[in-house]
Amino acid sequence: MTTTAKLLQFARQWKSTAKEMLGHTIVLAQFFSLLHLTENYICSPTLVYGPSMLPTLNFTGDVLLVEKMSTLLGKVAPGDVVLVRSPENPRKTITKRVIGLEGDTVTFLVDPARSDRSHSLVVPKGHVWIQGDNLYASHDSRHVGPIPYGLLLGKVFYRVWPPRDFGPLGQ
Amino acid sequence: MTTKNFVWNIAKKYFTAGLIGLTISDRYASLTAVRGSSMSPTLNPHAGNSSRFAFDDYVLIEKLCLQKYKFSRGDVVVFRSPSNYKEKHVKRIVGLPGDWIDLSSIDTLRVPEGHCWVVGDNAAFSTDSRSHGPIPMGLICGRVTHVVWPPQRIGRIDGTVSILPEVQVHVSEEH
């Protein structure tokens, strides 16, 4: 057989394998993009830990379900527990409660462990005021100021771990 | 019956393609149009001229930088505006965390941790960090690397910072 004929035969043998590989790649791409869509636009589970949201959340760690549609649509209200990208370190996510939206007047204790002094301010446009439930051990808007709305990642609506605390998050 | 099947198959294909396109544009790279003249002459060099009929520039934004949030001075970035999360702005980073910025002859500001100082190349027509302060890096959505339209200006975006008389940057020794 001539070289071209041999090459054509070779190509024909691998054509079906190539088609199968393409099919598998497309299925993988579909799965991955569906996962990406769900995780970033609908709902995703997150592990959170730390003392700043006691007694609502445990110190040692909770797995929470975070839904993303509320923050994307702007439907965040005071009292919601939200996941936020930290303004001091963009690779860290923190969990706090929204206390005030733009235009709200927020009154807070400047240093609850040491004095009774309180301070009031109006939340500027495009920002929100977040505070941890544990005011003594929380680094939040009382220290870094109001945070831009664009840093909000999602709203917590359910807790799935530990099992004894399974259920929706209360006010 | 076969027409319904046919339409359903086409719809499935478009939905899959759209989904994969969305994932790629969120995670890797996307194209977008730039409006306004705050980044002239780097982007939209003719937008300020009312006498010339000009189209917007289209640019390539890469999202891989969002894995580590490691930016350098001179990067042109897209970020959500701190006063309106629905708007996205394009400006150049001139100050990283720890840098000292001279606002005027008497005022000096230090860029806090996790924030950056952004300035438009066309400083006179740009609302940037000089109006709303340093922006948290968490608001950054991507880095502009190339201009892809119009064809005569296809190319990489220059990564050098032009020295502006209004903004003096003292680089901190830690970086």
What does this structure look like?
- The complex is a heterodimer of chains A (171) and B (175).
- Chain A has 171 residues and is an alpha+beta fold.
- In chain A, 29% of the residues lie in helices and 32% in strands.
- Chain A has a single domain, classed as Umud Fragment, subunit A, CATH 2.10.109.10.
- Chain A is elongated and about 95 Å long.
- The model of chain A has no long low-confidence stretch (mean pLDDT 90).
- The model of chain B has no long low-confidence stretch (mean pLDDT 85).
- Chain B is of the alpha+beta class and 175 residues long.
- Chain B contains two helices and eleven strands.
- Chain B is elongated, with a radius of gyration of 19 Å.
- Chain B starts with a helix and ends in a 5-residue tail after the last strand.
- In chain B, a hairpin with a 5-residue loop joins strand 5 and strand 6 (108-110).
- In chain B, strands 1, 2, 3, 4, 7, 8, 9 and 10 form an eight-stranded antiparallel β-sheet that branches.
- Chain A binds chain B through residues 26, 29-30, 32-34, 36-37, 40, 74, 85-91, 124-127, 147-151, and chain B through 16, 19-20, 22-23, 26-27, 68-69, 79-85, 112-115, 135-140.
